[in-house]
Amino acid sequence: MKILLIGAGGTIGTVVHKTLAGRGHDVLSVGRTSGDLRFDFTDPEQVAALYAAAGPVDAVVGAAGGVPFKPLDQLTADDFRTGFHNKVLSQVELVRQGVRHVAERGSFTLITGVLAREPIVTGTVASLVNGAIESFVMAAAVEIAPQRVNAVSPSVVTEDLPKYDRFFPGMPSHDLAAVARAYVRSVEGAQTGQVLVP
């Protein structure tokens, strides 16, 4: 398959890239400052240019989308707008524009996260946007069939526990290999409208 991978240079994206390429897929990496194609996927005009540059693809995979982490009483309206724009609207745009560029039975895989179901202190924006992505996936799956759309929802990754464990007290972690396998399930499997937990 020809796969467009957004956020290929990040912690999760790097492992997903290696895993999918290792399974024989032709993976085009996309990032703002690195990758085979350089585009800002938070800008709808650049998403259009990205699809024009990539040509027809079999799958689009997202592994990017930053959000601010602050206590609720310190969050501003701009923080919420930024998080929603960077992680929700950008991934929605990949699907909205992508349906014209992805194969008839191709797929989209978006990224969400455990905070949609297990909130933490300072994670209000992340919980909000992850929940929105998961709802979008369920709704979009009904409309774009036979194309498919799923989300991968990892917890904190095991490899990052030394840095982030104090923010996720007592929560299970997912190793990067398990997260990559969830992406493989979405890309190569038959599921749609699902939130895949590694």
TrEMBL record:
GO terms for molecular function: oxidoreductase activity. The keyword Transcription regulation does not apply. InterPro entries: NAD(P)-bd_dom_sf, SDR_DHRS6-like, SDR_fam. SUPFAM superfamilies: NAD(P)-binding Rossmann-fold domains (SSF51735). CDD domains: Lin1944_like_SDR_c. It comes from the Bacteria. It holds the Pfam family adh_short_C2. Keywords: Oxidoreductase. PANTHER family: DIHYDROANTICAPSIN 7-DEHYDROGENASE. Belongs to the short-chain dehydrogenases/reductases (SDR) family. NCBIfam families: PRK07578.1. This is Short chain dehydrogenase. It comes from Saccharothrix syringae (Nocardiopsis syringae).
